[in-house]
Write a structure and sequence with these properties.
Blueprint: H1 3-9, E1 13-15, E2 27-29, H2 42-56, H3 61-64, E3 66-67, H4 68-72, H5 78-81, H6 89-109, H7 111-132, E4 138-139, H8 143-163, H9 167-190, H10 206-231
Antiparallel strand pairs: 1-2, 3-4
Length: 246
């Protein structure tokens, strides 16, 4: 999911209105203000390390992958561990790099929302696959969770652009969201992945990506309405669920 890198690297700028700063420091990158450059995403790096370890310990893959028949026989851990094993090096690389990029953003801006997105996506994706993909016997990969983080992170950054009246930034993240939808439609209609080279071994599972995106959006909206409820203000006034800074 190359769009994850776009969130990190696209140079959105704004004029500081918090303290009226002018001059050389008046213009700062959008992402720098949140501490993303200086922060160390411990959770994200730990999860990436797990993904790497499991890739190198390939003999564990058959024990950990989502296997419909064996889950039905009681091996329920596969519901959660299936996300962390992959079909190929290309699959592993794209999934893990995307996790790092998107996790870096989400963990710094909203740690609680990040953890909620990870937890809910880990449960919701295999549950929906079990319900609606009865013919799919095996599933591997972080792409569904990455989709959840993509939508959650994009909404957080869209929120920041909205607050600053940054039309360019807002338009960028709206466009990224539209691209995400088009990507899923392409997967549904073609049966092919865009970023990962598909093989005879596996094919993309667009339902997992759609479910992940729905989880990311749901977590973001839940945080918005929770903020509204606590503050007793309108949605526009409470349009800030990011980690507070002093």
């Amino acid at each position: 999911m190359a769009a994850g890198w776009c969130i990190l690297t696209t140079p959105h700028y704004y004029t500081s209105s918090r303290n009226g700063t002018t001059g050389k420091n008046a213009m700062k990158p959008l992402l720098n203000e949140t501490g993303m450059i200086s922060g160390v995403p411990v959770i994200t790096l730990s999860l990436a390390a797990i993904s790497l370890l499991l890739y190198w310990c390939g003999e564990l893959t058959p024990v950990l992958q989502y296997d419909r028949h064996l889950i039905g026989d009681g091996e329920v851990w596969r519901i959660f561990t299936g996300h962390w094993v992959h079909w190929s090096f290309d699959h592993f690389l794209w999934c893990t790099v995307t996790l790092i990029a998107l996790g870096y953003v989400c963990e710094e801006i909203s740690p609680r929302g990040y953890l909620a997105t990870l937890a809910l996506a880990s449960c919701a994706i295999p549950a929906l696959l079990w319900k609606f993909e009865s013919g799919m016997l095996f599933y591997r990969g972080l792409s569904g969770i990455a989709s959840a983080l993509f939508v959650f992170g994009a909404m957080l950054l869209m929120q920041k652009a909205f607050k600053r009246k940054d039309r360019l930034g807002f338009f960028f993240f709206v466009t990224a969201g539209a691209g995400y939808i088009l990507k899923i439609l392409y997967e549904f209609t073609s049966g092919l992945a865009i970023f990962v080279k598909t093989t005879d071994i596996f094919s993309p599972v667009p339902l997992a990506h759609l479910a992940g995106g729905a989880v990311g959006l749901a977590v973001f909206l839940a945080m918005i309405f929770s903020s509204k409820s606590k503050a007793g203000k309108g949605i526009t006034e409470s349009f800030d669920v990011e980690k507070s800074s002093s």
